[in-house]
Amino acid sequence: MKLFALRDRLEDEAKDFGAYHAFDIYRIIAMMTENEWNEAINLRENYRNAPKIIEVAEIVGELFLNVGSIGVLRIRQHARLVAFPISTENLVALIEDLQELLA
């Protein structure tokens, strides 16, 4: 849901261009337990051809391709706002996790 919210708010200045949603994506992935990760992988496999899963993969591919992608920039934007330091290495790890999980 957060991926869809981010996509829908990218141009919405009143909603801070979706930066809060982007940061939530970072937090959700960072807080996943190993069991949650494995369950998510299994769900992805079971529903790989579902239209919404295909759409999510497209969103990840567009917004989280590399550290210069708009989704990552929005994470950094919100992190600066709340004074939360995020290293480039953590952002690279997030991109890799999103690609593995959803792309």
Task: Give a written overview of the molecule.
- With 103 residues, this protein is an all-alpha fold.
- The two termini are 15 Å apart.
- 21% of the residues are buried.
Give descriptors for this structure:
single chain, 103 residues, mainly alpha, 6 helices, 72% helix, globular
How do you describe this structure in short?
The protein has helices spanning 2-9, 19-31, 34-46, 51-63, 70-81, 88-102. The protein is mostly helical and 103 residues long.
Write the layout of secondary structure elements.
Blueprint: H1 2-9, H2 19-31, H3 34-46, H4 51-63, H5 70-81, H6 88-102
Uncertain regions: pLDDT < 50 for 5+ in a row? none
For the record, give the distance between the C-alpha atoms at the N and C termini, rounded to a whole number.
Answer: 15 Å
Computed structural class: mainly alpha
* Total DSSP E strands: 0
Overall shape: it is globular
Proportion of residues in extended strands: under 5%
Radius of gyration, taken over Cα atoms and rounded to an integer in Å: 13 Å
The main β sheet shows up as: none
Which oligomerization state do the chains in this entry correspond to?
A: single chain
